From TrEMBL:
PANTHER family: IRON TRANSPORT MULTICOPPER OXIDASE FET3, MULTI-COPPER OXIDASE. This is Ferroxidase fet3. The gene is FET3_5. CDD domains: CuRO_1_Fet3p. Belongs to the multicopper oxidase family. Coiled coil: none annotated. Residues 1-20 form the signal peptide.
Length: 545
């Protein structure tokens, strides 16, 4: 497999000062029976016949190699959420754009230079498959952390279902309004465990110590909020970007987002405390938003009384607030790019003329192309610069090399949505309400905070920027993964001629396409040039919805 490595690899090894190492993992992707909340045993997707999958630890400048063997009866893929994959676009793991998926009974080796540090995660990007358990934290350690702390605690939070993701997807895409809107409620898992037994989900603390809690929301659906009774927290990182400390009472995380906080333990072990990790149920447009409470225990001393605890939460001292990421200040002060290209996007949920509910940017409901966009770029010559060849429904936007892009997303929907851009971080320039009332506008600072997944509450907008300094095919999608399945995604085709000049796709990629009968050249439909006859543009929103 080593022969498949791109020519970027030796380049990094030559420049590295410390002994960068290879972290080589050999993974069978397998079905496993599991009962994480003690309420329901079901088939989940794990690694090497175990579930949950392991936490992956790497150091800056390591090479992370994952040799994945698909033992499922469906395709799969691996995407490292937040890694830029600079020079290795074909290892970004997005079926339909950067690969065809790993065919059943087949293998694929992902090989990535670790050029970022902080809290990331790895998940299947095949449909909404990660909701079935194929997700895990990836922690990338710098030679020296910016902040001092005694313990590093990973808290992976997740909305868990007793049903498989294909089943939920089918429900949400039903033509029957009644089926579509039948509420389905998730349960909270903390590090793949849930249920009412507080011993299963406890966080242990010792008096006087400083803890870094790495909170990850790896849900395929709703927003989570986290807080500890009578403890404040200092935010120090979001989405792999170290920030100046900001004191908060609670943290909100949408699917895909990560936040590290420092919590200083109490001086005494006399009491234990309750933490909350509640789920917001805002995925179905036809179902009212609710909060599903979840409580766990911060244990200082086994069996110690719970401080200030009443079962109905009446004594809760947590002050819930929206985590205002735009106020955060990154440690590495980088000024934002300017604006060469402006990409305005409206988010709507509507009933379409196929009688299904779809979500869309600018009413163009997304569907992945047949031929992965990267293979289209590499096989259409000068026409790789024409958006049409990537397929209307992929919503391709072509970017010039080093172009500065401003994306303005107006959420005209009743739900909040977390948008994730691959290959980049967004600089957060402004937030506001879609009535454009200047009183509600919050502007980012001179060195705006950057993150890879941004939440937009209902009837609000956000303005973000990035520089097109990473040639490749980068999807931007709602990370309530079922919303991507319902059409809320688009594609940046970044510097196509640079991709052509610098990319040699590993042979294993085409081999997997062949195994699944997917063409490996031509436009999105597998035809030549601009021959896009019968490329579907619809369905279209019905008037009045
Ligand atoms: C990582 O690699 C970069 C060059 O790619 C180098 O400048 C840096 O010093 C390296 N850092 C470590 C910790 O190896
Ligand atoms: C995968 O391999 C197994 C064992 O060789 C075989 O039984 C199964 O049918 C294969 N599945 C597919 C989808 O090819
Ligand atoms: C949790 O652990 C404590 C202390 O070990 C024990 O007293 C208690 O019975 C346990 N609770 C459950 C539900 O097992
Ligand atoms: C995770 O994100 C989803 C979707 O944004 C949200 O509904 C859910 O409540 C979040 N969970 C946590 C624990 O933040
Ligand atoms: C809860 O904790 C606060 C702060 O420590 C304290 O002022 C209050 O009296 C406590 N309430 C109860 C019922 O113990
Ligand atoms: C999208 O469709 C909705 C109706 O579903 C309409 O109100 C809105 O103006 C349309 N937006 C765009 C950008 O076409
Ligand atoms: C990708 O690498 C190039 C060349 O080193 C660099 O200029 C660019 O900033 C990188 N982009 C990202 C998103 O890391
Ligand atoms: C691609 O390579 C060709 C041949 O080396 C060169 O003429 C052209 O300028 C390059 N284009 C880009 C966008 O780098
Ligand atoms: Cu969404």
């Amino acid at each position: 497999m080593k022969a498949l490595v791109s020519f970027f690899v030796p380049f990094v090894f030559l420049l590295g000062h410390t002994a960068a190492k290879r972290v080589a993992l050999d993974w069978d992707i397998t079905y496993v029976q599991a009962n994480p909340d003690g309420l329901n045993e079901r088939r989940v997707i794990g690694v090497n016949n175990k579930w949950p999958p392991p936490v992956v630890h790497v150091d800056l400048n390591d090479t992370l190699v994952i040799n994945a063997h698909n033992k499922l009866d469906q395709p799969t893929s691996l995407h490292i959420h937040g890694f830029f994959q600079n020079g290795t676009n074909y290892y970004d793991g997005v079926p339909g754009h950067t690969e065809c998926g790993i065919a059943p009974n087949s293998s694929f080796t992902y090989e990535t230079e670790v050029s970022q540090t902080g809290t990331f995660w790895l998940h299947s990007h095949y449909m909404a498959q990660y909701v079935d358990g194929m997700r895990m934290p990836v922690i990338s350690h710098p030679p020296k952390e910016h902040y001092d702390y005694d313990e590093d605690v990973v808290l992976m939070l997740e909305a868990w279902y007793h049903r498989e993701s294909v089943d939920i997807r089918e429900q949400l895409l039903s033509t029957s309004e009644e089926i579509r809107n039948a509420p389905f409620l998730p349960r909270m898992l903390v590090n793949s465990k849930g249920g009412s037994d507080l011993n299963r989900t406890k966080i242990s603390m010792a008096p006087g110590k400083r803890y870094r809690l790495r909170l990850l929301n790896v849900s395929g659906t709703g927003m989570v909020r986290f807080g500890i009774e009578q403890h404040t927290m200092q935010i120090i990182e979001i989405d792999g970007v170290d920030t100046e400390m900001k004191e908060v009472n609670s943290v909100q995380l949408s699917a895909g987002q990560r936040t590290s906080v420092i919590v200083t333990a109490k001086d005494s072990a006399e009491f234990n405390y309750i933490y909350h990790a509640d789920i917001f149920t805002d995925i179905q447009s036809g179902v009212a938003r609710a909060v599903l409470p979840f409580e766990g225990i911060v244990e200082y001393s086994r069996g110690a009384p719970l401080r200030n605890y009443t079962k109905d939460g009446a004594e809760s001292t947590v002050d819930w607030e929206f985590t205002q990421d735009i106020d955060l200040v990154p440690i590495d002060k980088i000024p934002p790019p300017g604006v060469h290209k402006w990409v305005p996007l409206e988010v709507h949920t509507s009933i379409y003329d196929d009688r299904r509910e779809h979500l869309a940017f600018n009413n163009r409901t997304y569907e992945a192309p047949l031929v992965p966009s990267l293979l289209t770029t590499l096989s259409t010559g000068y026409q790789a610069y024409y958006p049409d060849v990537y397929g209307f429904k992929a919503y391709p936007v072509i970017l010039d090399p080093m172009e500065d892009v401003e994306v303005a997303i107006f959420n005209k929907d009743v739900n909040s949505h977390p948008f994730h851009l691959h290959g980049h971080n967004f600089f957060i320039m402004a937030r506001g309400t879609i009535d454009m009332n200047p009183k509600n506008r919050i502007a980012g600072g001179a060195y705006p905070v950057r993150r890879d997944t941004i939440t937009i509450p209902p009837l609000e907008y956000v303005i973000v920027r990035f520089r097109a300094d990473n040639p490749g095919i980068w999807i931007m999608h709602c990370h309530m993964q079922f919303h991507q399945e319902q059409g809320l995604a688009m594609t940046f085709i970044e510097a196509p001629y640079r991709i052509i000049n610098s990319t040699v796709v590993p042979e294993q990629l085409r081999r997997n396409c062949n195994l699944m009968g997917i063409p490996t050249s031509g436009n999105a439909m597998g035809k030549t040039g601009l021959d896009m006859a019968h490329d579907p543009h619809g369905p279209f929103p019905l008037a009045g919805f």
